[in-house]
Fold this protein.
Amino acid sequence: AGDVPMLVRLAGTGQGPVGEAAHKTLDRLGKPGVDEALIGLIGSPDATDRATVLGVLASRHTAAALPTLVRLVGGTDAGMATEAAKALGVMGQSAQLTALTGTIVVTGNAELRTACEEAGRAICTRAQDKAAAADIVLTALGQAQPPSARAALLRLLGYTAGAAPLTAVVKAMSDNDSEVHQAAFRALVGWPDATAVPHLVE
């Protein structure tokens, strides 16, 4: 575990052989204390180190990092929040979906919103309980004001299932905002079952 900071620094130096070797070593390192050391480095003052650590934690599927990632997604550092969202997209579960949709509602940062939407899409796709995921997204949709946030959440609903999300998407089809309308249309076109078909031919 004592080698972790050095390996993180080497892994962040670039895509050369040394960097790649360091990254592979970090991904596979099974010694006690490695995950804890990586989580500790999330607070590093070096942005490259932080991004590297978040990527490694995601590839290691370090569940112990999930609370920290959730905190970062809702934090004030948009760059860190974006990296944390990407990591949640790899290893997050429905329990972390609330943090991602909550950030979509409040952020004015387009890159962070996109990262949260992509992470949310990955989680909704993996979710066994699509209805529970839909409830989380619907709750956020009820709070969202900016069209960009509502559009992102409507697109997420297309990766859930059930009558309630379908009703919300159909309702959004008549929205005056073109981005929201387009997002609802895309969700309907890609709906996971045939229940959306009647609404497309209306």
Remarks:
- The mean pLDDT is 93.
- The CA atoms of residues 169 and 184 lie 5 Å apart.
- The radius of gyration is 19 Å.
- DSSP finds 13 helices and no strands in the chain.
